[in-house]
Amino acid sequence: MGVIRSFRKNFSNFFKKLFNKKNARIGIYGPPNAGKTTLANRIVRDWTGDAMGSVSHIAHETRRARRREGVTIQSNGGSISLDIIDTPGLATKIDFHEFMEQGMNEAESKRRAKEATEGVIEAVKWLENLDGVILVMDATEDPYTQVNVTVIGNMEARSLPLLIVANKVDLPESSPTTIREAFPQHPMVAISALEGKNIDTFYDEIAKRFG
Amino acid sequence: MIAMQGIQMDLVSEDRLAKMPPVEKIRFILDEVKSGKILVLEKGLTPEEEATLIEMTMTQIQPDDFAGIEMESYPSQTDSSLIGKLFKKNVVRTRLTVIGPANKLKTLKKDRDMISAIVSNK
């Protein structure tokens, strides 16, 4: 079995080199505050020593998509080069009052809300230009959000690979099993992007799904 | 005669939406929801239409006027045929969807086959 797998990998790498295939473009998606940028930072830091963006407990901290090209991940004796796109949190509603509740003044909250709407538009537009998606869910929250349903539906309709990440498993109230049961048709890996828990399994899954 | 007050809820048949091109469909939904109605779509929207609706909603958000929509649909079901795999396009069977203004419709609980929501006119 190992010989066949190795042969397939070498065969695939040969064709990639032959036709100069571009890196797979992988989008990191999810609702606001699921830990997308924390995960993007973890990936980029682990494999390039750099960082991708700032994180905050206030929703919609990432309001512009950030792209990092040529991140090479090594796993199981092989390597895969990806372009990672950290997208703004997807939402169907953005109420500036919620930012005011977090201590921002009205003008600041309205500006953040406006930028957040532009970020959502950008994230939706990116959906059409990807080769795969890492969908980050907060394992302490209900997984059946409309954002999750819409992203999964779009990947299924386009036959593109999807890896679900049940994030924040360092928190005692997290329940990755609930996420697995909600979307059993897709691979899922339970991690803590903040603490790095189970991150090697996550990289193995990336190599398997997007390689 | 006592005038009834409340929130209008329209149950939209599959046939009604099927007659509309995608752009008109999204426009219709957004206009109705912005006017304060709750829509229950018999057959829902395709995932691509849902993404477009989210995108269009973002362009309409105005502080103190319209904060966006609450949309709840069941996970769609995908028929992956050989032809679908070949052309990287699967047939998606959409399911019932509820859409309303974010300030009037709130989802209480949702799972694979059940949506519980509360409608309030605050």
Automatic annotation (TrEMBL), chain A:
It holds the Pfam family MMR_HSR1. Signal peptide: none annotated. GO terms for cellular component: cytoplasm. One of its GO terms (biological process) is tRNA wobble uridine modification. It comes from the Archaea. GO terms for molecular function: GTP binding. Residues 25-168 form the G domain. InterPro entries: GTP-bd, P-loop_NTPase, Small_GTP-bd. NCBIfam families: small_GTP. This is GTP-binding protein. It comes from Methanococcoides vulcani.
UniProtKB/TrEMBL annotation, chain B:
InterPro entries: OapB-like (IPR012017). It comes from the Archaea. This is DUF2073 domain-containing protein. Pfam families: OapB (PF09846). The lineage of its organism: Archaea, Methanobacteriati, Methanobacteriota, Stenosarchaea group, Methanomicrobia.
